[in-house]
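Our collaborator T.R. sent over the components below with a one-line note: 'Predict the complex.' Nothing else. No constraints on interfaces, no templates requested, no preferences about which chain binds where. So this is a plain run: every listed entity goes in together, and whatever single assembly comes back becomes the starting point for the next discussion.
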Amino acid sequence: MTTAHLHESETGQTAYVGTRPIPFATGSVAGSANLTLFRRLARTLCHGPRIQRAARRQSVVRILREAGEPQRYIGELLDVCVHEGGPDGLDLAIDVLSETGSLTADYVFRFLQRDFSNWQTGLKGSRSSDDVWYALARALAKADLDEKNVKLPLLALGLTAGTPSIREATVHALGDLGGASAKKLLERAVQDPDRLVRESAGEVLADLET
Amino acid sequence: VALNLDLAQTVALGPFNPYIITPEWLARTEIQPGGEAEFRVKVIGEGTAFQIQQVGWEVDLRRLVVSSLEKDCGDLVAKVLRELRHTPVRAVGNNFHFTGGVEDWGQSPLPTLGQKTKTELGDVTSFDQARWAGMFHRGGARIEVTVVAGDEQFAVLFNHHRQTDPRDVEKAMAAAQQFRHDKEVSEQLLRSLLSQEIKR
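Returned assembly:
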């Protein structure tokens, strides 16, 4: 996994920061200067002039690759694109994350480990992590990664998630991937306990057959 | 032209338990009732992160971080400490980040590398980022101010850090409750040091 303990602060506390040590242990972790500027860049990617989009997209990809703790940056990107990014936000997140290969795969694995469906107990609120997973799964399917050893095992894991919406988004990502192995997984999804997942799997399989 | 408050948060250093501080626990203890709120899960290196009602929570075995532009983060941290009084907290920090486009900065100088401004670097190298930092002491807090100039944008970061006694949770709670005061001090410093105003 790519998470790194990068720096020791003056108090000896391990600090997770972008690319520099922070002098004080309570200095912002979730908001190092690099991360704050990255968040602004992600917003301008979504809402700035289209003519500058390609250059900003490349800047975002470069920063993700250089980041000391890329999970935190990917999380910010997803947060901005999915929740504040407007009509293009999801597609922009998918485009960017399909270019960050193993970092995206790492994030996908960690996300699936945190399928906190049990946290919903006692909460009435809606869970908006579904769109985040949608973007991640589609980016994974598009990424330049080993299909047999990386993409398929991770998407197979997505089909076992406790949350039906995660399983349903995984079905669509398998449709993007195509091929015999993806079809086998989709045939399994046709037996899913959730009706929406079963129906989506049937539709995607039918599309792949034609 | 004015700057945006981009991040406001309280950090408490101590061994917090991500299996205790969950959205359900926050709702049950009425520290932050969930109601009909949207609930997001985030992935971080260790521990857990989630967001409820515009408040971000990060919990791991080293720290608790509460972030929000609307709520009093320090008050929320103090409420957690009131419930988990046995947690040894050795420092509390209140952080405020202000950002803007370089066109918002006005006539005040931005960080340079030596004598060279961004435009004077020419073909020698492509400019990515330059920083200035300063430290102050005020009212028992150590304040670090960092000014960061990026290619198109800049950020001004304030960290108000207070050491606390791990055996005395009241001191940690009091430090967290300086959140609103520290925010005002940050805005004052932004005006007096850097001649910048905040967007309201």
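Summary for T.R.: Chain B touches chain A through 56 residues (CB under 8 Å).
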